[in-house]
């Protein structure tokens, strides 16, 4: 095999597929990136058997073939080469030569035939949304997945298609995040639990442009994202997701409207007094026209008042400040509406159309203050 491509094209391709190279594996071939130039297109592939990514790069194929090269070494070499054309050539002994200007590397490759190709997915159904929308939906929900492997469901997000509406849902036992959007084309109802790792890596690759589309197709076991000459294939998490709708309520005793930025900045300031790992709640006292926020720790204390529009009862309630910050940061609205029942019931932050819903459980501040 012999190919020539620019450093920028190669570096971008390597960066994309590297996201599917496993950090630990018992199969050395999976630590490689496959360069496939057996057709008229140069394809790079990485696959950790849960997540696989393939992307096409522009370049010239002088001699067809394929080779698997250690991903870590290859990506470092490419990153540090001069900004010019790179020639990659392999011989019959799988020795791979990488040349750019006066720099020349010789490294051992592995047979491309041994590489685990991406599974061929018989697509049952598919939806198409803009890269911007997908990237935003991931950004606005991914923070509330769980990082604990003890409950596999919580490490993923539910993609639920029902009545031509896509809902993306995540939860970690303390909070729930929901984003929804209407789909343009009619599609059958479906529930898929997509690993959080897959979504995090996809959001890094997506350009996020409104005009650029992502085609999402799926079976019972896999989901495929196709965009910008790149294919991402991921296994789905098996099982039945939590019955989210039973946890959502439209009842409230207290409703308040508040400037999002003011609230976010105030809670952010309060966290200056909390050490890493400290479980100090922020205590919120809601009264007519004003919300008072207090925090007290070993470092010191703070209280601040913010103007609000309130309907219903006064309320004293405590929250983990991080959970409020995470939700407020991803809401784009200037003003947010909070719905509360009592000091032990969850708080809902949602817009009128319910295009987003954030449920946050309160904390018993008498026990932890």
Short synopsis of the structure:
This protein has 369 residues and is of the alpha+beta class. It has helices at 7-17, 71-80, 131-139, 196-205, 260-270, 321-330, 365-368; strands at 2-6, 32-37, 42-47, 51-57, 60-63, 65-70, 85-90, 95-100, 103-108, 110-111, 125-130, 156-162, 165-171, 175-182, 190-195, 213-218, 222-227, 230-235, 254-259, 282-287, 290-296, 301-307, 309-312, 315-319, 335-340, 347-350, 356-360. It is elongated.
Main features:
single chain, 369 residues, alpha+beta, nine-stranded antiparallel beta sheet, 42% strand
Could you please describe the fold and organization of this structure?
This protein is α+β, with helices and mostly antiparallel strands. It is 18% helix and 42% strand. It contains seven helices and 27 strands. The strands form four sheets. Strands 10-6-2-3-4-18-17-16-11 form a nine-stranded antiparallel sheet. The chain has a nine-stranded antiparallel sheet with strand order 15-12-13-14-27-26-25-19-23. Helix 5 (260-270) runs antiparallel to helix 6 (321-330). It is elongated and about 80 Å long. The protein starts with a strand and ends with a helix. The mean pLDDT is 95.
